[in-house]
Amino acid sequence: MQRRLPGAMIHRIWRCRQCSAAAAIAAALVAATAARAEVYRCRDDDGVVRYTDKPCSTAARPIDLPDPIVVPAGPTADLLGEAQQREDTKRAARDEADAEWIEQHAARKAEEERLRNARVTATVVEGMTPADVRRIHGDPLVVSESRSAKGVRETWSYTLEDKRRLHVTFTDGRVSSVRTRKEKK
């Protein structure tokens, strides 16, 4: 089954006087590869060469066109699949980051709640600031400080109502340990 280009289309292509012979041949090749129709070369009264799918005269013979060069297609790229895979990777990374943030947020909220409860019950716990301890017990009786490669450690000592000693150690501005001892006699 041969396919033919519409006559009006070929007529428009060939009617253009400014088309070069190379463009006309290229168009003829396109027409030949698309439909393998017969192509005729005609010269009009002005000497202009035209290519057409209809014979110009009864003596016109179709010209021999070379077979088209067919370049086989390479492996087809799955562009949609690749884009979907990139989106899935981004979504997984975002979901992982969101889950990590939610976990950290929950831990921060739990720590805030723990410290709030300790302040309400006037209990010194790890993580409190020096201001929190001062609000609960006032100024310490004894303050000792030590510096090392790990940082500054400061220990505050209090005497509690039941004659026990409370030692609160701060590391980098936060309570790092709380100890109670019976007072020595």
Which helices and strands, and how do they pair?
Elements: H1 7-15, H2 21-35, E1 40-43, E2 49-52, H3 79-120, H4 130-137, E3 142-148, E4 151-159, E5 164-171, E6 174-182
Antiparallel strand pairs: 1-2, 3-4, 4-5, 5-6
Describe this structure as you would to a colleague:
- Helix content is 40%, strand content 22%.
- The protein is α+β, with helices and mostly antiparallel strands.
- Strands 3-4-5-6 form a four-stranded antiparallel sheet, with no helix packed on it. A two-stranded antiparallel ribbon has the order 1-2.
- A hairpin with a 5-residue loop joins strand 1 and strand 2 (49-52).
Tag the structure with descriptive keywords.
single chain, 185 residues, alpha+beta, four-stranded antiparallel sheet, two-stranded antiparallel ribbon, 4 helices, 22% strand, rod-shaped
Tally the beta strands.
6
Q: What fraction strand?
A: 15-25%
Mean pLDDT: 82
Q: What is the helix tally?
A: 4
Q: Give the oligomer, counting copies of the same chain as homo and different chains as hetero.
A: single chain
| Largest β sheet strand count, sense and barrel closure | 4 strands, antiparallel
Low-confidence stretches: none
Strand order of the largest sheet: 3-4-5-6
Order of helices and strands: HHEEHHEEEE
Shape: rod-shaped
Computed structural class: alpha+beta
Rg result: 46 Å
N-to-C span: 117 Å
The portion of residues assigned to helices is: 40-55%
Summarize the structure.
The chain is 40% helix and 22% strand.
